[in-house]
Amino acid sequence: MSILLALDASSSACSAALLRRRPGADDELLSRFALTPREHTRRLLPMVDEVLAEAGVAPAELDAVAYGRGPGSFTGLRIAAGAAQGLAYGLDRPLIGVSTLAALALGAHRRHHFRRLVTALDARMGEIYVAAWQCRDGLPEPLLDEAVMAPERLRLPNGHADHDWVGVGSGWGLWERMPAGVQAALGQRLPEVEADAADMALLAMHELESGGGLPAHLAQPVYLRNEVAWKKAR
């Protein structure tokens, strides 16, 4: 059995989730989610306490701690990374950073069965954080790496421009600035969707089971501001 705690404060939403996985049984996923702009510091740790209490799990029983590593709100990323780092360090457990853009993709896939997604967040300063995904076997696989760019520069992955794509995340509020080719290929937009720790827990569990995880002192938010090149995923 593996038990993992995930927390996120990368956007106007704040969330925490506990995932318990037993061999041969359905996952048990408990979560808290709330839109709490500017209240993450006050709300995040009580959410953690609530999911642990509901699951009947003591912190010492956790196998790993995960957090939304970004991209997203600079302040929120630091809050989540700091809280997760403190928990993991105190428990001597591995720490797993989860992409907020991947979590958006998984959430849309789980709830609506979309397979090809472009996740985008409003990065302010006239730019978006963005990545493209194809979901296979229940997990998002990157078709284009995460990047920060002006909406006008967005291009769909080579060889995939004719597919029916779905846009997820606050970056699609800048729809009017997207290229005509991107607009034509998009079948649906969900700009109101926020990243959720429940999806991060599922992604982190997959990484944990694959041998992933880092020592707590290596926790680092991912801001993307210095990574402006749009690169094809390997």
Report the C-alpha radius of gyration, rounded.
17 Å
Shape: globular
The total of beta strands comes to 10
Strand order of the largest sheet: 3-2-1-4-5
Q: What is the first-to-last residue Cα distance?
A: 33 Å
Q: Tally the helices: what do you get? A: 5
Poorly predicted spans: 227-234
Helix-residue proportion: 25-40%
How much of the sequence is in beta strands?
A: 25-35%
What is the arithmetic mean of pLDDT? 93
Broad structural category:
alpha/beta
Largest sheet: number of strands, sense, barrel closure: 5 strands, mixed
Structure, described:
The chain has 234 residues and is α/β, with parallel strands linked by helices. It has 5 helices and 10 strands. It is globular, with a radius of gyration of 17 Å.
Short description:
The chain is α/β, with parallel strands linked by helices and 234 residues long. It has helices at 40-55, 74-91, 100-112, 180-185, 197-209, and strands at residues 2-8, 13-21, 28-35, 64-70, 95-99, 116-124, 127-136, 139-149, 165-168, 186-190.
Q: What is the secondary structure topology, with strand pairs?
A:
Blueprint: E1 2-8, E2 13-21, E3 28-35, H1 40-55, E4 64-70, H2 74-91, E5 95-99, H3 100-112, E6 116-124, E7 127-136, E8 139-149, E9 165-168, H4 180-185, E10 186-190, H5 197-209
Parallel strand pairs: 1-4, 4-5, 6-9, 9-10
Antiparallel strand pairs: 1-2, 2-3, 6-7, 7-8
Helix pairs in contact: 1-2, 3-5
